[in-house]
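Thread: Modeling a multi-component assembly for a lab meeting

Hi all, long-time lurker, first post. My supervisor asked me to bring a structural picture of a complex we are working on to next week's group meeting, and I have zero experience with this. I have the sequence lines for every component (1068 residues in total). Could someone generate the structure of the whole assembly? Inputs are pasted exactly as I received them:
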Amino acid sequence: MVNSNMSDADYRKSKIKSRVAWGVAIFFACIWLLLTLTPFFFMIINSFRKQFDMLQQGVFHLPDPWYFKNYTNVVTHGFFGYFMRSVLVVAVSLVLMLIISAFAAYPLARMNFKLNPIIYALIVAMMSVPMHVTLIPIFKLTTAVGLYDTLRSLIGPYVAFALPMSVFILTAFMKTIPKEVEESAEIDGCNRYQNFFKMILPLSKSGLSTLAIYNGVSMWNEFAFANTLLITPERKTLPLALGQFKGEHSLDIPIILAVLTLSVLPMITLFIIFQDKLVKGMMAGAVKG
Amino acid sequence: MNKKVLATFFATVLAATTLAGCGGGSAPASPAAGGAGGDATAQADSSAGKQTDGKNLPTLTTEPLEITLWDIATEDPAKSTQEGAVQRFMKDYPNIKVNQVHQQNDNYKQQLVVAMSSGQAPDIYVHWGGGPMAEYYKSGFANDLTEMYAKYDHPEFIDAAVAQSTYDGKMLAIPFGGLSGCDIFYNKTIFKDLGLEVPKTIDELEAVCEKLKANNIIPFSLANASKWTGSMYYMYLVARHSGNAEFDAAYTQENGGTFTSDAFVYAGTKIQDWVKKGYFPDGVNSLSADDNQDRALLYDGSAAMMLHGAWQVSGIKTDSEEWYNENLGVFRFPEDSEAKAKGVPQDVEIGTAIGMGMSFNCFKEDKSVDQEKLDACYVLATQYYNDDTYNNDQLSSGTQPSIKGMEENIDDPNMKTIADVFFNASNVQLWYDQYLPASVTEVHKNCMTELFGLEKTPEQIGQEHDAAMKKALAEQ
Amino acid sequence: MKNGNNPGLAQARAKSIAKAATVFLLPALLLITIYIIYPVIDTFVISGYKWNGISSDRIFVGMENWVSLIHDEMFWKSFKHNLIVMVFSILLQIPLGMLLATFLDAGGKKFNIFKIIWFLPYLMSSVAIAFLFVYALATNGGIVSSLATIIHGKKTTIDLLGTAPNALYTVIGVMAWQFTPFYMVYFIAGYGNIDTSIYEAAIIDGATRWQYIKRIAIPLLGPIFKTACTMSLIGSLKYFDMIWNMTQGGPAGSTELMATYMYKLSFQQFNMGYGSAVAAGMFLLITAIALIFNKAFKVKEEY
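Re: Modeling a multi-component assembly
Sure thing. I ran the full set together rather than chain by chain. Output:
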């Protein structure tokens, strides 16, 4: 850290100190790295094993021989279909959810009206609802409107369940945007709606990116609603694909690990591709005075 | 198992009376031999040859009909066996469409609750009998099959299977999953190498364990995170020490019956003794049978024996037929010589006689029976499930159908042993975790963890069972 | 916002605000009402009945279920477990996430690889995580026991999931493994939100990076901290997925949480009436705790 006020000795000392600090930091960073990677490592190596080999050799040896049939087996069991349906549901639900929660957070964060605290409290309180109590009512509703066993039936619950948390976070984010931003826009002749789309929404990018990650992942992995609302194999989403390989008394673990690997792969790829953009999106939240 | 014997008896008597009442002079000569393959005399109204031709069965509708069926056959071999039955049925009755849905086992009970409470229950669904079956029936989701079963042809199910499909004197399910005894699987190779004999008494079993221990082999492979696995040891020790007497008494909590009586304390003490001696794997409560961690211990030779349900045969065969043929043997749970001397029967076995049964939910909007649909379901379940093709598929994958005479078709030596033990049993005690009321089951399972974890004494867990049982009885 | 100095104008303004607020809030409120509020009301109604969950007959029992709930040891035991999970989740996930984010924020782009790998656990489904950890922690050949055996030189078993006090803390550890990455990203976003000129100004004023983080960044992140804590708090109080797949509340109920208890009662033990009382009680408790938390840590807010 270059600093004009420091003497040379001080500077050197601080440099050494910072070097040591970095060294320690990187050491712990690597430990954490190991902790996060190990389970992945086992998931992947064991997906290249035969069921019996895994039970006999134990989980922690390298596969001998490497067995690729698990993957071909998964792929030929309609994996692509499961995958595409998941993509579709998650994409639609996520976009809808982001728009609707930004809509809702805007007045809660930046408008002063009588019901504001009540509505905010109500929405936030809905975060504490355990999802299983909604299974039966939502199932009834879905069958009543004839959406049972369609992909569309998932969108409602997915969006609705992501809303309380998202509104909660976005409201917090939008509150940090200085009010001068809006005022200056108003002076420029923007009405509230233009204001929202032109100023607030772009400035909330960081919050929205975070929410996209948070909810995208949980929607991608969602099991309970999908399992309850979908019944035809040709209409099921990816988390249900596991069920194909689970018997009552037998469990082909390696093939299940292959399914898991294949389901998490697209997420990882997406994250690697977009993490730069994502971070930029997050940085874009920074407001220059 | 007085209760169960009584139930069987009741069902049989009821069946006989309805038979006499409804059948009149033309009662069926015999309730169908074996299931399918009968004589090929075509009935007048059937155009093509059906496998049900010539049988005494309800005439099925020729109108289009849709039947929804929920099972848990997500994986082969069960999947293709059960789909095969449905396919044969639909081929013979092209106007009837069966929507066969394979649910995941893990969430199956929840799925049924959700569907039933929303009035969307399937027409046919599978279950494991016991308390839940009674609950489905009491809530109006299971047709009473007593009359039909008496009137029409059906495979000749063994008595225990009929008993387990019966509640309150009413036949509520058609068995199709095959029976499952519970016996000790062992590694023949290890036994041979160490010169060990199959033990006949519990004392001999303990001697075998000592020898194995001395050779650094874990005597019993047990994955008790699943809890019902440890329960098998407990159930057997109770049964060997007291037959059915003490459990039945404790079940009713009457006449001094309690889960703290002799046999329960004996079983608990024995298990804890075995745990202390290291007869079970370390960390037994963290290994999971759902992930086959118990089988893994057998496969790599670190453990020599495993008390488990008969389905392990099919499971292990699927994993590796080679290993199975080379190493796997099975013997019945050894006898308690002391109890035997006192005249306690030593042939009470633990297991299930039906594996699974299917119940029918064929009701019209006004809650009257939808006989047309019910007839079709009955024919499907008794004549296509449980037919020769189906039973042969079951046998070849290591499952023993719950039908009389089937044991003669078994070539696999292990399955033969299991079947012999089962058929020679004076009584088959259904797993506690299916037989006990659901709330007691939960307590029982937790107690099994605590027992094996040496966290509670046998007396303490007995008291907990008692308290739960009393509460459940009071709520009924 | 009091801009209007004319009462008529202020009134018109209030009206237009109300109109805009309605338009903006309507879709969210509609969905939440249908999919969450209605089921919650339903749950409270069912909690007044003795009902097995499937029968068309329910018997109204008034407050009986609630009275049982108050005296239900198992419920309070699971609530206690939830509280333990909550405290440790907040104490582990938030500071760890903060630490990782600070490291990444300070390190800049060259540490991208850390960020990517650190984030991986969050991408996995709870089912997969439960499954992997059951194996990794197995006493027979799991990572921990194998390592212990190597270090100790003879066969050593560390039973993390099979014994009573261990299991709960193990699960807390796995939860931290799963959720820390999310808070990491959340705080990276928070750092990003701080005006770069503030950082520059601080550095020019002679602050070290550490001083900047301690004196400027963390206080500025206050509201974000609070939101993260609230999320972790609520999340851990209604946690279900991973624990269900990993222990089902075992061994011997030592990892039983309110949600798993409720699930067993409602869907496995034919006791929907009481299960609903548990669910409703759970809802009330979580809301109350969240409320107390938010009141206790009031962060200055301004419109």
